[in-house]
Amino acid sequence: MYYVYILYSEKLDKYYVGSSFDVIQRVNRHNRGHSNFTKTGIPWVLVYTEQCEDRTKAYAREMFIKNKKSKEYIKNLICSVG
């Protein structure tokens, strides 16, 4: 099973969208500075996950969310499950 996840950095007031088969491991890697983009926003907090059937679908969903280029879209997505 794969997941789409959204992280939030209060420090940057930014969201990060990604996909992975192991979300907790991936969040930990982001918070250890393994990604140049997320390194400056540590600490990142997991605010959303969405289960997908496989890697292809998870990546397609990740790209769909990223292509919205909208903080409001992400906030609404997060609020819709909370």
Please identify, by name, the CATH architecture.
Answer: 3-Layer(aba) Sandwich
What proportion of the residues is helical, as a percent range?
40-55%
Provide the CATH topology.
GIY-YIG endonuclease
Average pLDDT for all residues: 96
Order of helices and strands: EEHHEHH
The largest pleated sheet is described as:
3 strands, antiparallel
The CATH top-level class label? Alpha Beta
Structure summary, number of beta strands: 3
Total number of distinct structural domains: 1
Helical stretch count? 4
Ranges with pLDDT <50 over ≥5 residues?
none
Corresponding CATH superfamily: GIY-YIG endonuclease
Strand order of the largest sheet: 2-1-3
- Rg (C-alpha, Å): 12 Å
C-alpha termini separation: 22 Å
Oligomer: single chain
β-strand percent reads 25-35%
The 3D shape can be described as: globular
| Structural class by secondary-structure content | alpha+beta
Characterization of the model:
By secondary structure, the chain is of the alpha+beta class. The chain has a single domain, classed as GIY-YIG endonuclease, CATH 3.40.1440. It is 46% helix and 28% strand. It has a three-stranded antiparallel sheet with strand order 2-1-3, with helices on both faces. A hairpin with a 4-residue loop joins β1 and β2. It is globular, with a radius of gyration of 12 Å. The chain starts with a strand and ends with a helix. The model has no long low-confidence stretch (mean pLDDT 96).
